[in-house]
Amino acid sequence: MSTxxxxxxxxxxxxxxxxxxxxxxxxxxxxxxxxxxxxxxxxSAAAGMLGAQVEVTEEGPLFEIAKESRAMFPSLQxxxxxxxxxDIELVQKGMLKIARTEKEAQHLKQMLEFQQRLGExxxxxxxxxxxxxxxxxxxxxxxxxxxxxxxxxNPEKLTxxxxxxxxxxxxxxxxxVEVYSFQRDKDSVxxxxxxxxxYSGASFLVAAGAWSKRLLAELALPIPAYPxxxxxxxVITERPLITSTIFTDSCxxxxxxxxxxxxxxTMVPHTFSEHVTIGxxxxxxxxxxxxxxxxxxxxxxxxxxxxxxxTGDELPFLGGHPILKNVLIATGHYRNGILLAPITxxxxxxxxxxxxxxxxxxxxxxxxxxxxxxx
Length: 375
Ligand code: FAD
Ligand code: GLY
Fold this sequence. Notes:
Radius of gyration: 21 Å
CATH architecture of the largest domain: 3-Layer(bba) Sandwich
CATH class of the largest domain: Alpha Beta
Bound molecules: flavin-adenine dinucleotide, glycine
Low-confidence stretches: none
Number of domains: 2
Number of helices: 10
Largest sheet: 9 strands, mixed
């Protein structure tokens, strides 16, 4: 007799794995299918910043959900350590968003205004105060927005911790199984066709990152999503150069443990290529050296690239399929999928349980799509 699952998840990135964890915690029998390895794609390429305030430049639903997700990390760290044995390496030493011109300073001061008005911690540091805090910074520098609450994690470990914790709570996680298509009738899906056979379930979650578009086309749901490649590199320094994450308009530098600095990231739209180019790397290196001159003498460690899932309006798709009532979608997290993973997983579990979801969720609904849908 074949097994039937409560929820079948397509995609073993951070959002699929977070959903597997929260669904398993709420007692669901979960099957997660990943065509490569867990965290094989964007979720291991990320820098791991929890940049609710550094990345979101205006007030609105994205800011709301980002703050809510960021606030989940401290307790999640101990919860995941307990359920999975994996430390997600949460660091809460703040970020400096650097202004190199007066125009940038004006823009950052506007961001500061709305964030302070909404009760978030943030303040303006002039050049002298920035250099007192981070003496190794150099180049053009007018001042910086000081954001104490934005931290970072190890994104690959976060994804594995969610997957392992879900498994320990009873989920079945299968790597190297590709979902090809769905078996469905007019109103619902009842099974997935995969590289190792058919699996049936009561509900389905498409969390396949930048590759969700093809799967959703199978489900008569054309989404205006496209890939945006990001390249990064890391170096090891002899001594610590910075304490806070440094974020400029052309690169960011994230201080990880072991004197490792992660530098990212390029933005190359409309490609699924994960190659690192000389052009991408050299521009990042030059921008990082302007911001932090001593990085020039650091030992190069490695470079990599990943594919961000962009939706066009920079808001994720998080909600139910407009027609197929047992299909949920969690994709399009673009530059903030690591930050948003806890709340994504939690809301997916709440939606499966039919619980009330926050008002801001209407902004992420699939109903905002303009193209007419066919049954
Ligand atoms: P993915 O991690 O891409 O996972 C999707 C998975 O689905 C993949 O493993 C894929 O193999 C699988 N899949 C696809 N099709 C199928 C199929 N048919 N069958 C089975 N499996 C399938 N975000 C932050 O919050 N902070 C950061 O600092 C940050 N930095 C970034 C830096 C870079 C260079 C990049 C590229 C991204 C960064 N991001 C960051 C964004 C973040 O990485 C993504 O938003 C997030 O990882 C997306 O996760 P996901 O689970 O939706 O997709
Ligand atoms: N959030 C950082 C990036 O996407 O590069």
